[in-house]
Amino acid sequence: MTVTTPATRNMITDYYDVIASAVRRCGAVPGDAPGTPGFAPGFDLPELTPAVREFYAAATVSWSPLGHYAGHDLTMLDLTANPGTRTTKTFASMVIVARAVEHIRRTGERLCIVTPTSGNKGVALRDSVARAYAAGLVTPEQLSIVVLAPAATRHKFRHDALAADPATRAVNPLLRYTGADPEGVKALGRAFVDEYAATAYDKHGVTLWYTLDLRNYLVADAARAAFEADVSPATGSRWHAHAVSSAFGLLGYNLGRDVLEAAGDADPADRPGFLLVQHLGTPDMVLSLRHGSFERDHCPAYTLDESRGVWTQDADLRFPAVTDDPAEVLDPTFYTHRPVTSPAMNALVRRHGGDGIVVSRRECVRRYPVARQWLADAGLTLPEDPARLREWSILMALTGVCNAVDRGLVPAGHEIVVHGTGSYCDDFRIAEADAEVSTLADVVAAVLDQR
């Protein structure tokens, strides 16, 4: 049964035991993270002192009814409350930084987190590092972060506490990648750690930690399932809808379900189905789910309607009927091609039910007035003009849900829980990069030569 009033919890402190169990179930062991040779970050978290609770204070999550749509109850799982990020990346980032703090306390090592990102992960990790400084858990001399992001996501980065202070800015550089392929940040970041971690340690006394590892995100997202079980236990007639690039959030949710079911706190028969929502720029997970292949040959053919200046198709219900561009990049955060997570997500949908759908900007804008009202009722504010949006995750998810219902893809009577993973507009000052990079030499010059 769905709760009828909003319910709010702290995602980390209220569900620490589930996160700890997820870590054990994940099989993660110290010493297997890319970084300085011999580096062993571990998964231990600091004791919940008042300072640590202050650090975690922004990790809140809420469950809010949105209303009804065509015979389906809609609920928002809002993961965007942290004002420093407005995305779900808050939770995993706080856990990563907390682990870093505990590692520093245990070993005395100076630690530098290195993360390539499409945008939101980097914003959240910077926010978490700044919160750790503010709570007195660690100093800039002990913990720092290097963020490497594509130029296309410049508008995602806010001028934050790390950028505002010259001392913290100097040791926490934001690097803008100017290469042609946004996904190139991953290879470049990994190459920097693989080739220069030993140098950073030997010459500067700094241990590097490359955090782009699925398990670093799964363990925090496991708490989503515990929160659901706490406020509104799932039934067999529920789907979870999520705008996805690699579906880390849903895989983390399912890890949480594994933990609950193993402990006898949830019934395997009641695990929900899943609706994957993507955009035309990277529909890879939907293609894999529906066709077992990432090949774009499986996308429907669009025809230009010259009288309207739009592209249309009616051959595939799971793709937009109308778009301004058949290869449209609705939000550059969703940039992953051929995600390695697709087989696992496909297996979950086959077992528990679900589907996938791709949305266009035109479809999102058409749904915008209704979505804006629904979200206002749930305590989330969208700007009057959708052109001001800088993060489209929630609007994509809601549009995907409505389209899927309208096209008969959702079983009759199913409740739909929308994972509210990100939403923000142009109400902040954009952070300027500390350096523009395109090669490994550029990164070395921006990071190591400045120490």
Question: How are the SSEs ordered, and which strands pair?
Answer:
Elements: E1 7-10, H1 16-26, H2 50-56, E2 60-69, E3 72-78, H3 89-107, E4 110-116, H4 120-134, E5 143-150, H5 161-164, H6 166-171, E6 174-177, H7 184-204, E7 206-210, H8 214-221, H9 223-231, E8 238-243, H10 248-262, E9 273-279, H11 284-291, E10 303-305, E11 310-312, E12 322-323, H12 342-352, E13 354-359, H13 361-377, E14 389-391, H14 393-406, E15 415-420, E16 424-425, E17 435-437, H15 440-447
Parallel strand pairs: 3-15, 4-5, 4-7, 5-6, 6-17, 8-9, 8-15, 9-13
Antiparallel strand pairs: 1-2, 2-3, 10-11, 11-12, 14-16
Helix pairs in contact: 1-8, 1-10, 3-4, 3-8, 8-10, 9-10, 11-12, 13-14
**Low-pLDDT windows of residues:** none
Structure summary, number of beta strands: 17
Cα Rg: 21 Å
Q: Per DSSP, what share of the residues sits in E-state strands of 2 or more residues?
A: 15-25%
Report the structural category.
alpha/beta
Pfam families: DUF6002 (PF19465)
Relevant terms:
single chain, about 450 residues, alpha/beta, 7-stranded mixed beta sheet, 15 helices, about 40% helix, globular, TrpB-like_PALP_sf, DUF6002
